[in-house]
Structures are given as C-alpha cells and as structure tokens.
Design a protein that fits this description.
Order of helices and strands of chain A: HHHEEHEEEE
Strand order of the largest sheet of chain A: 2-1-6-5-4-3
Radius of gyration of chain A: 16 Å
Distance between the termini of chain A: 30 Å
Largest sheet of chain B: 8 strands, antiparallel
Distance between the termini of chain B: 43 Å
Structural class of chain A: alpha+beta
Oligomer: heterodimer
Number of helices of chain B: 11
Low-confidence stretches of chain A: none
Strand content of chain B: 25-35%
Number of strands of chain B: 21
Radius of gyration of chain B: 23 Å
Shape of chain A: globular
Helix content of chain B: 25-40%
Helix content of chain A: 10-25%
Chain lengths: 168, 436
C-alpha cells in the first residue's frame, strides 16, 4: 500500500450518499433484480459470509459460508434466476432493513463502511429473519461500486433458517 | 402406532418400503433415543480439533453436552458437561484452552482429565465423601484414525469391530496426507424441518444428483468442467453394504471446478506421491473416486475429491434435525490448494452453497408430504434391488441403513444384499493397520 490519502471522490462521499447506495442495493435484492445487483460490483469483487462460530475468520483459510469472487457470484445469480434452483422456487419474499451506517475509513479511491442489517424472508408458511453486520469496501473511482461485501451473521445456528438460499 | 410393518423387505418381488410413520412418530423417536443414540458409537470430533493439552470444544452429542478435550498428558477425553454436585454445565464456552473447568454455581473444579480437584469449604463433607468418586462422567471413548467416538452403552463392542468395513473408507481419507488430516476452523451449523433419517438417506443418495443439483452441474459446465457422472464411459459407480448398517456409494470423479494450473500441478504431484506410497490401486480409490459413506446411526463422510465433508445430525423432534458440517483437509497441502479446496467445498456443501440448500429444500418437502401418512403410508427404496451389482445411483446403501435400523427397533433380522465392498485396492499389511 502506498499510504496516499483519499481521492476527492472518496474524501467527499457522505454517509447519506452511502446510505442511498445501500438502500438502492437492498431494493434491487428485494425485487429480485439480481443482474442489476451484480452490475454494482467491481470485476475484482468478493462476497463473503464467515462461519457462524468464526465471525472474524479469513475465508482463504477457514470453512466459511460464502466466499465468492466475481465468477462464482455470477454463477450464483444465474442459478438463483432458474426455476431449478429449488430452494428459491418459488422465490422468497424478502424485506431488508439497514441501519447504523458508519464510514470507517477512506483511502485512495476506496471508502470502507459498516452497517447493521435485518433481512426478513417469507416463503410459504416459513418466516425467518437473518441479522448481523455488513462490512463494505466501496470503489468511488467513477460510480460507486462494491469491491468487497461481507455479511457477518449473529446466529449460533441457522435454525429455523436451515440455509442461506437468498443473497444476504 | 401402526400395526403395519415399519420396513417391508420383499426379496422375491424386489420391493423395499419404509413406513412413513418412522418420520413423524414421537414414539419412534423415543425408541430411537433408547436403542440407537443411547447404545451405538457416536462421532464426537476429530483429534486435530484439540491439538494441544488443555484444548477443548463443547458440543452436543446424543442429546448430552460434552467437553471434547485433551488432558495434560495428551490423552483425548470426552467429559459429560454436568457438575457432579447439582448438574450445572461446568464449561459454558464453545472452545478454548483450560487446565481446570470450574462450575460457577458452587465452585467445584475439575481437571482436564475429569478428576474433581477442588471443592470449596471441603471440610464440611463426611469421610464417606470421596473426591475420587465425583469426577466428571466419561462415557466409553475410542478413536480410529483420528475420528473420536463415544458410546453411552454399558457394554459396547470395540469401535473397530463396530465400524466393520467402514473402517476402510475412513482409511481412504486418513491416508491422503503424510502428516495427517485436520479439521479446518469454521463449522457449518444449521437445522432442517425434517426427520434426521432423511438426511442419512440423502447423504449417500446418488439418484437425486441430477434432479436436485442440476443447477450445480450447470455451474460446473458454465465454468468449463464436465462432471464425471456425465462423461461417457465412466459408468455409474457402485454401492456396498459395509456391515452393521454402514454403507457407501462410490462414483466416478465429479470434476474440479475453477482449477488453475498451479492447483492442478499440486494435485498431480500429491497424487504421484500417494501412488508411490500406497500403490496405484489405493491411490485411484482415494483420489479418483467419490465416496459417500454413512456410518450408522448418524455419521457421514463424503469425499468428492475437491473436499471431504464430515457431518453429524441429531433429531430434536420427529420433524426437526440439527446438523453440523466440518471440512477435513490434508495437513500437508499447500496453502493455495487448501484455499481452492475450501472454496469448492463450501460452494457445494455449505448451507449457503449452490447445492446443499436444495437438499434441505427437498427433505423439508418430503416431511410436508408425510402429513398424508394415512393415505400414502409407505416410501419406496427399491431401486436396483435385484440387479446383483447395485450402482451408486441405486438405493442399496439406504436399504443397508434401514435394515440395521429395523433390526434394532423391531428385532427382525435381515440378510445382507449385494456383494461385499471391494477391498482389492488394499496394500497387504498397510491400510487399516494404523488404527489408534
């Protein structure tokens, strides 16, 4: 790392602008507009969910729940749009609440932030809620793009969820 | 309970059926607790999870919470996590390193070997109270190739005899590293709204692959990998009865998605080293077949070449099951190969992966279907029954489980079906001789 300060775009991104971006992203996910959601990511992106018992674990050396780079994130989206993605056919309805957004650092063209989330999922008679904390690294070079997105769950066991078949 | 047989095993017609009451009945669950989970050998963990003296993890095994630890002398111990005084759990952490487990209720303290070492105000006890008689309870504990089991039976068979031919399948994973296998940090813990036995079936069911996991195979093909089951000339594998209710479904290689040249080179050189050590036949069995092994009653080891999943499941109700998944890794694999294996393993087996969520969905759906148990009383598990050479996409492996289950619950003896597991790959005097 060069240690240079933030670029003008990264230096001036406000919390309200970051929140607008997160709300837009949440709306795309709740509306199952997953291809548009994928367009929010950089080509060198990652999407991670650590193991429940190892929330600080490095996914390169621990058995996490999700560790997607761009190719697998694309495959995840392609799969979820198919009727043969049985766990999500018919699609769940989801409602995402995002709060406590905090910008934690700015460096070069990047802004890092954290936020709390609750994602409610309804499918048939099943109602569940996933909750936890997001960590984002946003690339502000031109438009805001997601370079790194991590969802850290607060659950000890995925019960009654059983699975994470939606995007969290 | 229904007067109809729980299991119909008609060799003449080639018909095998299981009564669906076994998935919904509280009475059956109570009998399973008494006859299976209180009697059989149950997997606790792998000794690599507690490498150093004082290391411990706590988990539920057979409905009890246990402390899986290594004492000061290095001996692996399984201690029931209940104070001998009034019953409180003496360890409330998930993992750590402790020389002493102190109950916070009245302060009784136990060593990592389970012995009671301190009782506050101990002078108030009469001479008849002997500390040596009040250590933490330790069920029978034995291990095989690093896999540690306990049983609550008063008079159990030894573990090696209990494992029968399943021991060879554990050898096929334990032999994959010169420096031992290890469980990777990070545990998959999830639950399903379905009976536990449905997951034992599913864990060795080759027949469901293309229907349930179609999107997984499409992902592989999108990324340029042809799944082994699709490739021409690979056959459909085999399934075998391993004795005592254990069984295996063995299939052609599945294929390795997203492999780069470095990882390919590492895989090739590892294979060459293992073939050198064990011979070509053993290496081919280890590295060029996939093996879904079920060990009665509730332990699963699945080797799909890109990873090795270890799994247990326990019922909390007829229609609710708690599942734990671990990933077993060759300790001597290079970091890049470990990272590659981990990504593939969680993409397949993780509860957030591209395959396992659809299994859970299928089993939840089966359980819903059992609401019609009075109108549709039986499930069918007849596939490949009179073939003589049952394949991995037949259902012999499930029938093996059910025959043992039925024998224990009803006393009805069953004859085994199909040829014994082919152990011709074994190098005389080597594999299987390293039992610990």
């Amino acid at each position: 790392m060069t240690g240079t300060g933030p670029s003008p775009a990264a230096a001036t991104l406000t919390r309200a602008e970051a929140e607008d971006f997160l709300y837009h992203e949440a709306a795309l996910l709740d509306q199952w507009r997953l291809e548009e959601w994928l367009d929010l990511f950089t080509l060198d992106c990652s999407y991670e969910i650590p193991a429940l018992d190892l929330p600080g674990g490095d996914p390169a050396s621990t058995y996490s729940l999700i560790h997607d780079h761009r190719p697998m994130l694309e495959q995840r989206v392609i799969r979820l749009k198919k009727p043969t993605a049985h766990a999500e056919f018919p699609h769940s309805r989801t409602r995402r609440l995002i709060s406590n957004v905090q910008i934690t650092s700015r460096r070069e063209n990047e802004v890092q932030l954290t936020a709390n989330f609750a994602v409610y999922r309804v499918r048939g008679s099943d109602e569940t809620c996933y909750f936890g904390r997001y960590e984002y690294t946003l690339d502000c070079t031109s438009q805001i793009r997601i370079r790194h997105r991590k969802a850290i769950l607060d659950h000890d066991i995925l019960d009654p969820h059983g699975k994470i078949s939606i995007i969290l | 309970m229904s007067a109809s047989p729980l299991v119909i095993d008609d060799r003449t017609r080639g018909l095998f059926q299981v009564h669906r009451s076994v998935f919904v009945s509280e009475e059956i669950l109570a009998r399973e607790k008494e006859l299976l989970f209180d009697q059989m050998w149950l997997y606790v963990g792998h000794d690599s999870e507690i490498p150093h003296p004082g290391d411990f993890v706590t988990r539920k095994v057979g409905g009890r919470t246990v402390i899986f630890t290594r004492d000061r002398s290095g001996t692996v111990r399984v201690l029931l996590n209940t104070c001998r005084h009034r019953g409180a759990e003496v360890c409330r952490e998930r993992r750590g390193n402790r020389k002493v487990f102190t109950c916070f209720y009245h302060g009784w303290a136990y060593g990592s070997d389970g012995g009671l070492i301190s009782v506050p105000d101990g002078d108030s006890y009469a001479d008849g109270f002997k500390r040596s008689e009040h250590g933490l309870h330790q069920p029978h504990c034995e291990s095989y190739r690093g896999f540690v089991f306990i049983t609550f039976s008063a008079d159990p068979p030894d573990l090696r005899a209990y494992l029968a031919d399943a021991a060879y399948l554990l050898d096929l994973v334990a032999d994959q590293s010169g420096s031992g296998m290890e469980i990777v940090a990070g545990t998959h813990q999830y639950a399903m709204k379905a009976n536990w036995k449905l997951l034992m079936e599913n864990s060795c069911d080759g027949y469901h692959g293309f229907t349930v996991h179609q999107t997984y195979f499409e992902m592989m093909m999108n990324l340029g990998v042809t799944p082994g089951l699709v490739a021409a000339g690979n056959g459909r594998g085999a399934s075998a009865d391993l004795g005592n209710g254990h069984a295996v479904a063995e299939s052609p290689e599945l294929g390795m998605p997203l492999m780069n040249d470095d990882v390919l080179a590492m895989t090739v050189s590892r294979r060459a080293a293992l073939a050198e050590r064990f011979g070509e036949a053993h290496a081919r069995r280890m590295l060029n077949t996939t093996r879904n092994t079920i060990i009665f009653p509730n332990f699963v080891v699945i080797d799909l070449n890109f990873g090795i999943q270890v799994r247990t499941m326990y019922p909390t109700a007829p229609d609710h099951t708690e599942i734990t998944g671990w990933q077993l890794m060759p300790r001597d694999a290079a970091e890049a190969l470990k990272a590659y294996r981990l990504d593939n393993a969680l993409t397949f087996w993780g509860p957030a992966g591209l395959a396992t969520p659809d299994d859970i969905e299928a089993l939840d759906q089966c359980q819903r279907g059992f609401a019609s148990v009075h109108e549709v009383p039986y499930s069918d598990i007849s596939r490949g029954m009179r073939s003589g050479a049952p394949t991995a996409v037949d259902e012999l492996q499930m029938r093996t489980f059910w025959r043992r289950w039925n024998e224990l619950l009803t006393g009805e003896r069953a004859q085994p079906e199909g040829p014994r597991y082919d152990t011709s790959y074994l190098v005389a005097g080597l594999a299987g001789a390293e039992a610990s």
